[in-house]
């Protein structure tokens, strides 16, 4: 009785899982705006010549239309908020399976090589694409999650947590301009609060550990691009406040060493005087507003011109 | 080993199959298997602490045997105190040593005396408060001749270390659980089905209700300087459901797992947020601990069979100790004291328990107020939160982009949970999906719950809150 009833229950569960899972996936892939819609577009439809990659700094700082105009090449911004290097490597592998952009600009976040569970947890954004890109994703997702293939057999697990996004952007569509999403507030000069010691940031850096897997992923990112003859360019976004980062930030230092070893050009705007303490160009301490993004993109485009001319 | 981990997903079916495949369902062999599995389950955290359970088991077993043959009152008392000192000694050392040391140093420095003593780097063994209380109840019951001591060491070891409830209860009484190790267990579909259903509901409460709520609660309570009253209120209400989902969820998984092996554990939660008074709440919340304190502290203190002021003091002492049991921190002591004060006020001012809905709401508000102290990282934070709620409501913190999912899903899950509890509390005899006479409807219901777990749950193998106690 146990076996027959268990099998019947299992059948009912599979039926419900497949039906509701099918609806959940339909909802997921029918999104037209928002993070997942941009991600799906980047993977399935994008055919631009220049591709911007990175976290929210990439997404909010690189004005695709300006780059298109200045470089005379089509451009799309695939920056995804909160994502680290491991995600960028996975995303590049998925994109390259269908399309080879001429140039990929990867905006580096200074903490990308530091060990962080969050970067692994956020890989869940890739779960809905797993079965279409199993070969590419398996080695990456397996690093942080056991039995990933088994778990992702369930459509419900693949689309875990995505419903709120879909509903949110269905009712309030999220505007973007070829992937770029401007921020429109201007910071007030009261940042940082008088009593807040700036030094705390540097002190925190010292206790952080480099994650070897993240460093390997960075090299893999470079190798994948090379393998597909994609011109790779690294950037570091402007900062509001100047920190003596290079002395303490081993993550950024290591990324720069790897870039140099592989002869990848790197344009570091983190100490650019155009932006330091220019509160009116920032939306918040970590992100440029639209005015700041326009100035930054134009400055970058000038610097990129020479690099891009070589591949045209 | 956590219930919400892949390790447990492999461990449970393996032990289950081995257990029921034992030839002729041999009792000794099954009990041995339970002990071995339980030690493996506990040793998964830190094998070194297995020695504590083993030592506690041997001491209480021998104390039980000693009490069986000993009629001399003084010697019986010595035996009982041996058990109390060993069990509470472990607890005092591992859980409270640093707390007392730090507070002594602070107290002396207040009077201008500097004491140099360094706190020890002590790791708190998971679930120590639970299994020490369980074994202690055995010794006390045997001493009071309420229970016949066991001569079966294997059965006693299995009773102490029974893995489903080893680390976070329910704190079973020997009178209920121990005899179940003496009798032949037979596998029935009914038992299996009940166990699996309880586990499914338990996982929903843990992975969807508790873990989703936790994300918002942690964001607010771990950054008190950046939030105001409204956010603290929202976070406190969510915490009320986080801790309920977490602990009641654990209890259901524990009770369900025990059923799979043919055991019946006591109910630990009975829709606590529908209590119509704080007294009623404590009859519905963490029942195994409340009744433990009632039987082994409140009644020995005299209970309500004493003069009126002494009765009120007994209530207060019981809750003060209960707060301290939860953790070596002033926040827990204040939390316990607050509940004691609530009960004293109820005892003095409200003689009859009115079943009106307004009482449910008032009780919920009072309980939520006490949760502030339970959850806050320290007393200063708790006082700041209370002050902010009263004088600085400010703006409600709404997480941006990705993070907004957590509170939205938490509210959705809480609504589902409350919906089913309202039905059980007020309309128990009406139509039921979970207990429907048609199997297809029941299976469909539990399949949907499983789907919701996979679709809305948090899968980062987070700890259960009560493991730290």
From TrEMBL, chain B:
Transmembrane segments: 6-22, 29-45, 51-69, 78-97, 117-133, 191-209, 307-326, 332-350, 357-374, 404-422, 443-466
Keyword flag Oxidoreductase: no
Main location: membrane
InterPro entries associated with the record: Ac/AlaTfrase_AlgI/DltB (IPR024194), AlgI (IPR028362), MB_O-acyltransferase (IPR051085), MBOAT_fam (IPR004299)
Family matches, as Pfam families: MBOAT
Subcellular location: Cell membrane
Keyword annotations from UniProtKB, A to Z: Acyltransferase, Cell membrane, Membrane, Transferase, Transmembrane, Transmembrane helix
Topological category with respect to the lipid bilayer: Multi-pass membrane protein
Family (UniProt): Belongs to the membrane-bound acyltransferase family.
Entry protein name: MBOAT family protein
Lineage: Bacteria, Pseudomonadati, Bacteroidota, Cytophagia, Cytophagales
């Amino acid at each position: 009785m146990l076996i027959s009833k268990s099998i019947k229950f299992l059948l009912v569960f599979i039926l419900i899982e497949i039906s509701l899972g099918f609806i959940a996936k339909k909802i997921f892939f029918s999104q037209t705006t928002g993070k997942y819609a941009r991600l799906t577009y980047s993977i399935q439809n994008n055919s631009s010549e220049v591709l911007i990659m990175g976290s929210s700094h990439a997404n909010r700082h690189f004005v695709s239309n300006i780059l298109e105009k200045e470089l005379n090449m089509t451009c799309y911004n695939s920056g995804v908020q909160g994502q680290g290097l491991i995600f960028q490597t996975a995303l590049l592998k998925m994109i390259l399976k269908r399309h080879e952009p001429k140039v990929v600009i990867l905006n580096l976040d200074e903490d990308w090589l530091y060990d962080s569970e969050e970067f692994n947890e956020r890989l869940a954004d890739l779960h809905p694409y797993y079965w279409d890109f199993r070969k590419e994703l398996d080695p990456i997702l397996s690093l942080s999650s056991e039995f990933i293939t088994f778990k992702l057999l369930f459509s419900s697990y693949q689309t875990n947590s995505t419903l709120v996004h879909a509903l949110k952007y269905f009712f309030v569509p999220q505007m973007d301009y070829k992937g770029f999403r401007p921020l429109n507030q201007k910071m007030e000069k009261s940042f940082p609060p008088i009593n807040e010691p700036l030094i705390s940031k540097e002190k925190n850096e010292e206790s952080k550990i480099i994650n070897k897997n993240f460093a390997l992923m960075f090299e893999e990112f470079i190798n994948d691009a090379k393998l597909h003859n994609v011109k790779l360019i690294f950037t570091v976004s402007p900062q509001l406040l100047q920190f003596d980062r290079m002395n303490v930030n081993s993550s950024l230092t290591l990324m720069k060493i790897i870039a140099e070893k592989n002869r990848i050009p790197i344009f570091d705007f983190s100490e650019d005087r155009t932006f330091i303490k220019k509160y009116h160009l920032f939306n918040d301490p970590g992100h440029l507003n639209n005015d700041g993004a326009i100035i930054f993109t134009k400055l970058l485009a000038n610097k990129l011109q020479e690099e891009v001319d070589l591949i045209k | 080993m956590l219930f919400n981990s892949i390790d447990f997903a492999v461990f449970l079916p393996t032990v289950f199959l081995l257990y029921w495949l034992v030839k002729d369902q041999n009792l000794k062999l099954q009990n041995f298997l339970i002990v071995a599995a339980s030690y493996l389950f506990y040793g998964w955290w830190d094998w070194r602490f297995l020695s504590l359970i083993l030592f506690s088991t041997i001491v209480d077993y021998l104390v039980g045997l000693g009490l069986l043959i000993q009629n001399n009152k003084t010697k019986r008392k010595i035996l009982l105190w041996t058990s109390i000192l060993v069990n509470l000694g472990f607890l005092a050392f591992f859980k409270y040593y640093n707390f007392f040391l730090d507070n002594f140093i602070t107290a002396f420095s207040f009077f201008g005396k500097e004491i140099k003593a360094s706190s020890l780097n002590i790791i708190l063994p998971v679930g120590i408060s639970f299994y020490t209380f369980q074994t202690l109840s055995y010794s006390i019951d045997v001493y009071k001749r309420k229970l016949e001591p066991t001569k079966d060491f294997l059965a006693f070891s299995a009773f102490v270390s029974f893995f489903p409830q080893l680390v976070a209860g329910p704190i079973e009484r020997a009178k209920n659980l121990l005899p179940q190790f003496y009798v032949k267990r037979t596998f029935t579909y009914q038992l299996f089905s009940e166990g699996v259903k309880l586990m499914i509901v338990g996982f929903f409460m843990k992975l969807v209700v508790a873990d989703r709520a936790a994300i918002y609660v942690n964001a607010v309570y771990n950054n008190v300087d950046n939030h105001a009253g409204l956010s603290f209120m929202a976070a406190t209400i969510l915490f009320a459901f986080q801790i309920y989902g977490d602990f009641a969820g654990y209890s259901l998984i524990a009770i369900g797992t025990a059923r799979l092996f043919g055991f019946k554990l006591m109910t630990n939660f009975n829709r606590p947020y529908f209590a119509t008074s704080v007294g009623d709440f404590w009859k519905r919340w963490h029942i195994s601990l409340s009744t433990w304190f009632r039987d082994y502290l409140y009644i020995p203190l005299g209970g309500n069979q004493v003069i009126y002021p002494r009765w009120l003091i007994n209530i207060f002492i019981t809750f003060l100790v209960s707060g301290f049991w939860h953790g070596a921190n002033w926040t827990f002591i204040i939390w316990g004291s607050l509940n004691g004060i609530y009960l004293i006020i109820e005892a003095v001012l409200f003689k009859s328990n009115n079943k009106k809905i307004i009482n449910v709401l008032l009780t919920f508000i009072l309980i939520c107020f006490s949760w502030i102290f339970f959850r806050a990282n320290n007393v200063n934070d708790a006082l700041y939160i209370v002050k902010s709620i009263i004088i600085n409501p400010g703006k409600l913190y709404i997480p941006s982009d990705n993070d907004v999912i957590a509170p939205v899903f938490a509210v959705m899950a809480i609504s589902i949970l409350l919906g089913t509890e309202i039905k059980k509390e007020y309309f128990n005899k009406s139509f039921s999906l979970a207990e429907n006479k048609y199997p297809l409807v029941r299976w469909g219901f539990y399949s949907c719950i499983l789907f919701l777990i996979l679709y809305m749950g948090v899968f980062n193998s987070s700890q259960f809150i009560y493991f730290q106690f």
